[in-house]
Design brief:
The protein contains ten helices and ten strands. With 277 residues, it is an alpha/beta fold. The protein has a single domain, classed as NADP-dependent oxidoreductase domain (TIM Barrel, Alpha-Beta Barrel). The protein has an eight-stranded parallel beta sheet with strand order 3-4-5-6-7-8-9-10. Strands 1-2 form a two-stranded antiparallel sheet. Helix 3 links the parallel strand 5 and strand 6. Helix 1 packs parallel to helix 9.
């Protein structure tokens, strides 16, 4: 089993740096990939209410044979449940589906600035955290503007911000902002959702030089930047390969060449305009 490094949150809790995401994995198909991931050494499992597969994730956790205290489980509040009371109810629903008493990390999935409810929602997460029902709380897809408002109007700095981040969208300014406020950066779609990134000649050349796949090179880039990353796959061989990134190191030149691929190109929506219930 691969030993995965951890990253320390601003409250002292540690999160595995490389985890397993289950975005777009159907509820009736999620148990087996999660089981495979845990057997391969993953200890961070990332789901969300919106994925509609929390129940399957919970079954995989329960049947894994791994002590609950050795797993790090993240789920997220969906947009339709923003607001203090709604968030409190939604958290209970997620816990029930997962079959857990607590989660390790609970996130607001999107800021939805046009609805302007994320501050009240965050106050619900603060209550959940104060009650010990989540070991840490954070946000997803928040920009500097959204984070600054939380700083100004609430009492707990998010432990983490999970955002779209890959070589075409390296998020250098946001990562620096996070670092200045002791917020961990977590990358969703860390290898670009298979939309052409892994065929880039720069990546394939670096991969060949290291005897690794392009996906492994990109994930190693994340690790050396200090990001947490949650690649998703349902293919056992790729699930295994994605965690085998701790036995090589990219040079400064490699790292610079990969970051230079940044074009600002997103594979997902813009957090400033995204508004879906």
């Amino acid at each position: 089993m691969t030993d995965t490094p951890t990253v320390r949150f601003n409250n002292g809790v540690e999160i595995p740096q490389l985890g397993f995401g289950v975005f777009q994995v159907p509820a009736d198909e999620v148990v087996e990939p999660v089981r495979t991931a845990i057997e391969s050494g993953y200890r961070l499992i990332d789901t969300a209410a919106a994925y509609q597969n929390e129940e399957g994730v919970g079954k995989a956790i329960a049947n894994s044979g791994v002590d609950r205290n050795d797993l790090f489980i993240t789920t997220k509040l969906w947009n339709a449940d923003q607001g203090y009371d709604e968030a409190m109810r939604a958290f209970d629903v997620s816990l029930g589906k997962l079959g857990l008493d607590t989660v390790d990390l609970y996130l607001i999935h999107w800021p939805l600035p046009k609805r302007d409810r994320y501050v009240d929602t965050w106050k619900a997460l603060e209550k959940i955290y104060a009650d010990g029902r989540a070991r840490a709380i954070g946000v997803s897809n928040f920009t500097e503007r959204h984070l600054n408002r939380l700083f100004d109007e609430t009492g707990v700095v998010p432990a983490i911000n999970q955002v779209e981040l890959h070589p075409k969208l390296p998020q250098e300014e946001l990562r620096a902002f996070h670092a200045s406020h002791q917020i961990v950066t977590e990358a969703w779609s860390p290898i670009g959702q298979g939309k052409g990134l892994l065929e880039d000649p720069t990546l394939t050349s670096i991969a060949e030089a290291h005897g690794k796949s392009a996906a492994q090179v990109v994930l190693r880039w994340h690790m050396q930047l200090g990001n947490v990353a949650i690649p998703k796959s349902v293919t056992p061989d790729r699930i295994q390969q994605n965690i085998e990134v701790f036995d090589f190191e990219l040079s400064d030149a490699d790292m610079g060449a990969i970051t230079a691929l940044g074009s600002g190109e997103r594979v997902g929506p813009d957090p400033e305009t995204f508004d879906v219930a």
